[in-house]
Fold this sequence. Notes:
Layout: E1 8-11, E2 16-19, E3 27-32, H1 43-61, E4 65-70, H2 77-84, H3 93-117, H4 133-145, E5 149-152, E6 155-158, E7 182-183, E8 195-201, E9 216-218, H5 220-232, E10 236-242, H6 246-261, E11 266-272, E12 275-277, E13 280-281, H7 292-297, H8 302-310, E14 318-320, H9 322-343, H10 360-376, H11 381-401, H12 406-423, H13 435-450, H14 454-466, E15 469-473, E16 479-483
Parallel strand pairs: 3-4, 3-10, 7-8, 10-11, 12-14
Antiparallel strand pairs: 1-2, 5-6, 6-8, 8-9, 12-13, 15-16
The structure holds zinc ion.
Residues 33, 224, 249 line the site of zinc ion (ZN).
Amino acid sequence: xxxxxxxxxxxxxxxxxxxxxxxxxxxxxxxxxxPTIYNYVHIGNLRTFLFQDLLRRTFEAAxxxxxxxxxxxxxxxKIIRDSQKDLPAGAENDAxxxxxxxxxxxxxxxxxxxxxxxxxxxxxxxxxxxDYLAQMIGLIETLERRGLAxxxxxxxxxxxxxxxxxxxxxxxDRSGMQxxxxxxxxxxxxxSASDFVLWKGTRDGEPWWDSPWGRGRPGWHxxxxxMALDVFGPRLDIHTGGVDLVFPHHENExxxxxxxxxxxxxxxxxxxxxxxxxxxxxxxxxxNFFTLRDLVAKGFDPIAFRFAIQSNHYRKLYNFxxxxxxxxxxxxxxxxxFRGRMEEEPGVPRxxxxxxxxxxxxxxxxxxxxFWRAMADDLNTPEALAAILTLVTxxxxxxxxxxxxxxxxxxxxxxxxxxxxxxxxWPRQAHETPDAEIEALILARRQAKAARNWAEADRLxxxxxxxxxxxxxxxxxxxxxxxLISS
Length: 487
Ligand SMILES: [Zn+2]
């Protein structure tokens, strides 16, 4: 295993950049608030998921073992509203649950396709909320036993009361909170801070589950506490989400989890900033609302979008524009072209006295140090990329002047690979051999076998194997072949 690199992150709890000290040395546990799967996620949501991917990949590239969880919220106010609207008023509960599941299945699939297109590494576990009803009910029962929950009209609420810790994350002003006032909605603003719902008694036209409090369904906030506690146990290194989740969602998660545990739960709360579109808040009514599918339909590569997002610091407001996306693509092309050049064999030196004094090996070592210094400092991707891009300029000039040796080129490529474990935007290109060339080698092998020249036939098989081609000899004497995907 490589040596661990120390990393620092901005912790919303303390409002400071802090060195990350994992609970278990060399290991990091991360819980990511995932999507509510009720439509195609927009590019603002995608920015959050790309930030979570950046975090995970950076820890892995820095030598840590990462266990990550991203939940899928498959029951909440919006999902019920949108999934149930076409059902008749008297529909049976089974039909309501089935319809909701089919509705969320569709958008889960779409979400996973977007994640794959953006090369987001799949989290270690991706639990769906409705598979955790028993854990949610158990957690609410614990809160009741501890005097932190109360029943009213078939629902159960969390008693914020004079809980000393409430507001530790969002730093809300509690002076306006009315004792006993409660809110049923999953999402609400700071001004409505009050007791919040844990279990909602069923209403007409909604799917429900049985519980000790009668028929109903969980509130949104209890879902994440229950899943995070079930997956990771009582201690967690890092909890993430978009900044819009700080209040009320994460504040309420802390109240629930720490209320049930009776002690501190998460060490680092890390939040990704919003995205604006051409200087304005994204909204359907302004016509500036985009999904990844919209960008692809306009001819953009999802990886150019990934690169545009990752080029910006995750805690800075990002102003998305199509000009910015085109500029990102140009920079990406430059990196990929450079990589191609370094993979090729050295060219011919320029005539006359050398002009570049760059020593490739020490220049690569310097860029690596700058890259990691930036990434370790709260994932400063703009500076990390600047380190790589100035390396490109210097090495190109040196290679024009006195071509790098094969060994020096390999060192440059090794750094590009190391950085690409995080950026996932300039991987080694699969040099595909044309089909005709493969067919010709297969034919030559058949002729060698017909001539009982087994050594030559085996040599040809090995040559094909080295090209990533596997052969399957069939009983009728024909040969099938397929490529192994190397990237
Ligand atoms: Zn959550």
